[in-house]
């Protein structure tokens, strides 16, 4: 499985970006897909996850109402729309997939992309 992210960049606070993740397999082959981020000097954290197999979406509290995860199975694409961006959203954003069932569909991902950097200035 290969994942390639794109769409990162530098924006001012309040701006928007759309991150894209191109997958090598059809998305329905995965148990769940997710976006994670890692800020400078911090660990990686889950931002948003989606599982079509169980019909659930998760958002980190700090991004609820501002970010939206979506997918296009036919195009093998996963998206993360980032709106009303804040400086604390700065980091490298990673797309990931989990192949099989997990009690927590937003943990234990098997494959990761290389990341795309988002920088939000105040």
Protein model, in words:
The protein is mostly beta strands and 122 residues long. It has no helices and eleven strands. Strand 4 and strand 5 form a beta hairpin. The protein starts with a strand and ends with a strand.
Core attributes:
mainly beta; 4-stranded antiparallel β-sheet; 11 strands
Give the strand tally. Answer: 11
Note the beta-strand portion: over 45%
* Helix-strand sequence: EEEEEEEEEEE
Give the termini separation.
37 Å
Mean pLDDT: 95
**In percent, how helical is the residue content?**
under 10%
Structural class label: mainly beta
Oligomeric status: single chain
Radius of gyration: 13 Å
Number of helices: 0
List the helices and strands and how they pair.
Layout: E1 3-6, E2 9-12, E3 17-23, E4 32-38, E5 44-51, E6 56-59, E7 67-72, E8 77-82, E9 91-98, E10 111-112, E11 116-121
Parallel strand pairs: 2-11
Antiparallel strand pairs: 1-3, 3-8, 4-5, 4-9, 5-6, 7-8, 9-10, 9-11
């Amino acid at each position: 499985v290969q994942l390639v992210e794109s769409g990162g960049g530098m924006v001012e606070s309040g701006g928007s970006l759309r991150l894209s993740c191109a997958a090598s397999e059809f998305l329905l082959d995965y148990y769940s897909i997710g976006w994670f981020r890692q800020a400078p000097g911090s660990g990686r954290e889950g931002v948003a996850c989606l599982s079509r197999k169980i019909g659930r979406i998760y958002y980190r509290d700090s991004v609820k109402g501002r970010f939206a995860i979506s997918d296009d199975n036919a195009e093998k694409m996963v998206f993360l729309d980032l709106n009303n961006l804040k400086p604390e959203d700065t980091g490298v954003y990673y797309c990931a997939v989990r192949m099989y069932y997990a009690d927590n569909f937003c943990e234990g991902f098997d494959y990761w992309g290389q990341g795309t950097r988002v920088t939000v200035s105040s």
